[in-house]
Design a protein that fits this description.
transcription; membrane; 0% strand; DNA-directed RNA polymerase subunit beta; 119 residues; mainly alpha
């Protein structure tokens, strides 16, 4: 029974320390290239800074299709609809009453009287 692993020749793995050592050896003679890299990095940073400034200057005000004040009104309206639907479902389905009775003032007066215990 042969497996693919057994057929492969054993390769020498490079450890982390030997890898770092080999990188150090190649980087020792590259002091001139390091200076060029730092010069490129600073010029790159300057370019990025210039692009950010141009972006800030060219920025147009955002035109909202759905204004914030309208969003607030819509959210409040949806909350009121959800509250009303919840009252009707709770009173009509769970409480075995008629759903429209949940919206009558007499029903709420009766609930308030029960909570405050006034007769």
């Amino acid at each position: 029974m042969t497996t693919k692993q057994a057929e492969r020749p054993v390769e020498e793995k490079q450890t982390r320390n030997s890898h770092k050592d080999s990188q150090k050896k190649t980087n020792v003679g590259d002091s001139a290239s390091n200076e060029q890299d730092t010069a490129k990095k600073t010029s790159r940073n300057q370019q990025k800074q210039k692009q950010r400034e141009e972006k800030k200057n060219n920025k147009r005000p955002r035109l909202r299709v759905f204004p914030i004040w309208l969003r607030i009104i819509v959210v409040l309206l949806l909350c009121a609809i959800a509250l009303t639907a919840g009252l009707m479902i709770g009173y009509g389905v769970i409480g075995d009453g008629t759903p429209t009775d949940a919206l009558k003032k007499d029903t709420w007066q009766h609930i308030i009287d029960i909570v405050t215990k006034t007769e």
